């Protein structure tokens, strides 16, 4: 789709212009144009025979910790080589144009923060953190090459795990609290590049709708939210977000 064919609905621009508080819920689609594969895409190469929902689980780290760890090392190496795209950058600009913008991201790639966004809730954690469930140590990972044994905690020598929320695990209390608080007071809820299938993240859009916020979805495809959203912009976020921000400036 060429850039000129995307027109940003005035309903979206008006709602954003009048908003005193905006939530931007982002999913893998926002990082797709930075080259980070989405969860729905088939995993490329070596990992095509694995399902993310099967590897991103506590059970995977019990049954086969080395395979689970090397999936994360592969993702770390891939993500570390990516940079924020115009969609991430546009959200930084949006934060300057509105009284309050809270980004809630399901992505674990850290790209909103590296783009310069300050107010980011990492709802599903961060790919580059090594976490010890035994003593609570959390360290920034520094090496991403394939491992021959799972990494051990420098404080208690127990096996570490990546600092992400695995399927079946609870969202960290502080992240959940901030995300719910922002959702409960926003005038506009932007759902950007997410299939809206994973809960409780996907439930936040419903909460915003129930409270009477304006729901705007930006997605290249249909999702369960599309039929209830006030505005649907069926286009890539890296094209749409800069146009939205330009219209507000
Ligand atoms: C919880 C970190 C309480 C890890 C992630 C059965 C057993 C156990 C649990 C469950 C169960 N059934 C349901 C559950 C609950 C489960 C869940 O919702 N499962 C789903 C699959 C049904 N949720 C949980 O387990 C959560 N915890 O509920 O605890 C509990 C406990 C036990 C039992 C029940 C409840 C924890 C969920 C967090 C999991 N961790 N990530 C890691 O990254 O390795 S989730 C992971 O997948 C991502 O973070 C993200 O959230 C999700 C993928 O979703 P998206 O980001 O939307 O990406 P996706 O690829 O799906 O879609 C991309 C979208 O972008 C598409 O719509 C596409 O059209 C669009 N797009 C593409 N390109 C573009 C674009 N849009 C715009 N522009 C583009 N250029
Ligand atoms: Zn430890």
Your description of this structure?
The chain is elongated, with a radius of gyration of 18 Å. The strands form two sheets. It has a six-stranded parallel beta sheet, sandwiched between helices. 41% of the residues are buried. α6 (86-97) runs parallel beside α10 (237-248) and α8 runs parallel beside α9. It has helices spanning 10-18, 28-32, 52-55, 58-63, 65-80, 86-97, 111-115, 173-185, 203-210, 237-248; strands at residues 22-26, 101-105, 120-122, 125-131, 138-140, 161-164, 188-192, 214-218, 231-233. The mean pLDDT is 94. A hairpin with a 6-residue loop joins β4 (125-131) and β5 (138-140). It contains ten helices and nine strands. With 249 residues, the chain is of the alpha/beta class.
Explain briefly what this protein structure is:
It contains ten helices and nine strands.
**Cα radius of gyration in angstroms:** 18 Å
| pLDDT < 50 stretches | none
* Fraction of residues in β-strands: 15-25%
Largest sheet, if any? Answer: 6 strands, parallel
Quote the distance from N terminus to C terminus: 24 Å
Small-molecule binders here are: ligand BV8, zinc ion
The strands making up the biggest β-sheet line up spatially as: 3-2-1-7-8-9
Helix content estimate: 25-40%
Query: What is the string of SSEs from the N terminus onward?
Result: HEHHHHHEHEEEEHEHEEH
Average pLDDT level: 94
User: What is the tally of helical segments?
Assistant: 10
Q: Which term fits the overall shape?
A: elongated
| Structure class | alpha/beta
Number of strands: 9
């Amino acid at each position: 789709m060429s850039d000129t064919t995307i027109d940003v609905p005035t309903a979206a621009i008006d709602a954003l212009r009048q908003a005193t508080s905006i939530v931007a819920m982002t999913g893998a689609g926002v990082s797709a144009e930075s080259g980070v594969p989405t969860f729905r895409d088939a995993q490329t190469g070596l990992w095509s025979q694995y399902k993310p929902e099967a590897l991103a689980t506590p059970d995977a780290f019990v049954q086969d910790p080395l395979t689970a760890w090397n999936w994360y090392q592969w993702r770390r190496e891939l993500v570390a080589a990516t940079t924020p795209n115009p969609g991430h950058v546009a959200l930084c600009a949006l934060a300057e144009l509105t009284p309050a913008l809270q980004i809630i991201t399901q992505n674990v790639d850290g790209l909103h923060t590296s783009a310069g966004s300050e107010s980011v809730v990492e709802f599903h954690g961060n790919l580059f953190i090594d976490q010890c469930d035994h003593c609570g140590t959390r360290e920034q990972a520094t090496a991403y090459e394939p491992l021959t044994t799972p990494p051990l905690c420098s404080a208690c020598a127990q096996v570490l795990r990546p600092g992400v929320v695995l399927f079946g695990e609870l969202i960290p209390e502080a992240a959940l609290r901030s995300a719910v608080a922002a959702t409960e007071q926003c005038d506009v809820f932007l759902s950007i590049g997410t299939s809206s299938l994973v809960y409780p993240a996907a439930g936040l859009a419903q909460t915003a709708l129930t409270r009477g916020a304006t729901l705007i979805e930006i997605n290249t495809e249909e999702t369960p939210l599309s039929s209830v959203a006030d505005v649907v912009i069926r286009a890539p976020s890296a094209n749409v977000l800069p146009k939205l921000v330009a219209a507000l400036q």
